[in-house]
What does this fold into?
Amino acid sequence: MTPLFHLLAAQAADPEVIDRIPSGYSHFVIPFTIGITFMLCWIGVGCIRLLYAIPQADRLKFWKSLFLPKTIVKNLKDLFGDCLLHVKIWQRKPLLGYMHSAIAFGWFMLIVLGHIEVALFVPARLNVTRGGLFYPIFYRYFVWMNPGHTTLRGSFFFFLMDFFLLYVLSGIALAVFKRFRSIVLGMRHTTKPSFADRVALYSLWMIFPLRLLAESFTADLSGGSFLTVGVNHFWHFLFGDKLWFTPCWWAYSICLGLFFAAMPFSRYMHILTEVLWILLRNAGIQPHHPRKGVAEAEIYACSSCGLCLDACPMNVQKKNLKYSSVYFIRFLRRHNEKKINAIADKCLMCDKCHALCPVGVDAPALRRAQRATVNNALPYDYSYLASAVSSGQPSGHGRVHSRFAAAEYGLGPAAVPETALTESKSPRVLYFAGCMTHLTPRIIKSVDKVFKAAGVDYVFADREGGICCGRPLMLAGRTEAAAVVIEANKKMIEESGCDTLVLSCPICFKVFKEEYHLAGIKVVHYTQFINDLIISGRLPVQKKEQKLVYHDPCELGRGCGVYFEPRAALNQLGTLVKASKEYDESICCGGSLGSLTLDSRDRSKISEASLDSLLANDPETIVTACPLCLKTFSEAVSNVRGRDINVSVKDFAEVVCP
Amino acid sequence: MKNNILIIGGGPAGLEASAQLQRMGYNVILIEKSPKLGGHLAKWDRLFPDSVPADEVLGGLLRGSEGVKCFTDTDVRAINRLDKSYNVRLTNGITVLSDAVLVASGFDLFDAVKKEEYGYGIYDQVMTNADLEAYFKTGSDRRIENPGRIGFAHCVGSRDEKSGCRSCSKVCCATAVKQAIEMKQAFPQAEVYCFYMDLRLFGRHYEDLYLKAQKEYGIRFIRGRLAEVSENYDGTLQVKAEDTVAGKPLKVTLDLLVLMAGMRPSASGKAIGDLLEMAVEEDGYFAVRSGIAACQRSPIPGIFLAGAATGPKTLPETLADARAAAMEIDRYLTEIFPDARNYKQLVRERW
It folds into this structure.
């Protein structure tokens, strides 16, 4: 065994790596160079155009965010977690996560290590004028290892390069397998690739086997480790000393070139645009248009992986696959106006595709923006509202104040509300039921019971029926009309002098939380409020012998992140069993008012699927905290065909105070 | 000619068909799942358009079907088809070998609790058309105490995709007009409102009834569906609607709201259909051989249908349908059934 200092001495005397081809160029690099140059130009121009399309203020915000320590940390975390390691996919589908991270992280490491090798052994070649664009990629072709001068450092890199190549190859093997049997990797449906996708896909499949082939042919010249050297011995065993490595390097380069040339038109553009999208997303910039600016980054960040296909509640019927977010984004990318609008209107806006998206593409927000482009321009005649006000009918701005007064002082001479009598001029707690709750009056009754049991003095803001919170208008893309409604409600609430606003409808809750900006007023959902009442001991509860299952309403769970409080309260009231899909994977009840065009038969199929998930552990009662879910499930349980189910559907407040 | 015929359902259709078939000389067995014959008719007080007492009509039907073997409190436990006839096991332990089966399972009233926004079962002062008829019959209902303002909501559970029924129930418009008049007669001081989408007063005298309601009784018809109902502290109801003629949203305080619950396929009829594997259409009612030329024949040979089992019908329509079914059964039992050798071919050609 040679002592280590001898090795070091030898290295000093003779170089470890010798330029086998002094020019550092061979014709086979041409396809790769063309491909990558095209792709880099394309993305460079694209980035400039994109940043130019962002409003001035947002652009400033973006540049600033790049230097804020908080966002820097978040950016680094997300770039590593989302782009390279695919943590979000790992968490849900480990095998799929392994596949993606093997290809992404493995390839990334191959590129980085390749460059480090060049930097260490032939640093001059990193210069672009001396082939820096392609030399590190085809490093093994151009060099010759000086036999007997290999250092530990060189072997270490040989090993790493082979290790990561094997890692990527295992990912590719899984990807090929996934094409045929995706369900094994946890995907029921996969996306239909477009033509460019296919070109890129097949060349991607070929790149790494060809790289192994090429590097193994040259392994006895340029070195290698367990994989390439091993395969090299195998070739020698098969073909003797006749090895044709030039065609292999050509093929490798062609596949790379083809991949990069197809990339801008294929789903694989996400590899690079994802970075930009994550930076923009973390800067907190919202899309204003479904196609321009930030939205463009979002659209190109979509990896078209198809995880949203299985997530989408509409896809219990195969015919609805075409309305999934992945296709919506694909058609946005292609500017296919006709299809975009049909798809945008169909969505239930349950936000599950967003919650499950590995890159966090907010497709529902894009759909909303798309709806706004059409629906804001629709003419609506509200002139009758003015005449309604003059004839004593409540509506519009003028109504708000009078309506609130009515809630405080009674409905008229005939009826004086009890709460108003005991109420001081400025109520502490204001309860806003909202339109949907008015359609399910048992919730109003139960909430009243709960408040009375806990001794909460409250004022019912919309006893006589209020004006809409604005969220349905926003979901329909009528942002301008929504702004008018929001302004009117805001005035009413601020004038009430309350310090807590309680909402029983998650649809209202979301918009009150996000759009109203009520200074000094705590906006809470009644599940949170009631849970606090129970914790503080103001509301005595008793645990009963009952098996409950809780349905996470879309707007409350995924929309506002309220998962814990309703469950905490229900655990005090009975035994809470699990649904097969819950928390952010909860399935929309089918009644969502987010969809503008989905018909009742399709909706009932969704309700059935949602019920199936809820009934997985044979609960006696389905509890939900949304009037729309309550209504939908109440109707759906009686219509489930071919099954004998005996389950009641109750609102959260009903369970608290039966 | 003494074929056994089983009639399932002792409502108007079943009674009328059994009377006709008995007259033709058949051996009729009528079963009724409830303790009393007459179906919904037995629960009604007076009938539109001429306010004929329901008891009178029912009495006539019962007299006509005297002598029919009748089992009340009886349902079908199992049915199996033999070569041509049906072997029917009843819940009272009797087994009937029947050459033809007439399904006259009728309808159920839409469960108004499901239309929660109208508050039936939640607010005290909301009732249904059936509740009001019961009041007319018995003269007492805790909800009715000299009401000042009464509202009738048409189309509750019919023509309403949201409650799972797209089609019209046919009888509610005329019933609402009739009941509105009757309430006005009972409480002349009351203001009566009808909230409708459009009035489907297609039958003879129906339009006259509607005119009379407006002219003589001053009943106010408001075109617009109820949006929602809420309860005031004093128990009165606050009703929100839209007057689509005036193009205005509307709010009315009412002392009593009557919901015109529509017709849904009967649950017990569905159970029989499941036993027989009979086809139902999307609306839940039984499918017929032909919607125009053979409305009383089911797709299964030997199984006949009459009355509201094949969709909403008014009472005269139901009776006519039952008579037609009797004729169809007679034709089947004389032309097709006896010819054992050519039975299958005849069924193919003439069923």
Residues 1-5, 7-11, 388-425 of chain A have pLDDT under 50 and may be disordered. Chain A touches chain B at residues 384, 387-388, 391, 393-395, 410-411, 414-418, 438-442, 444-445, 463-465, 600, 631, 634-635, 638-639 (CB under 8 Å).
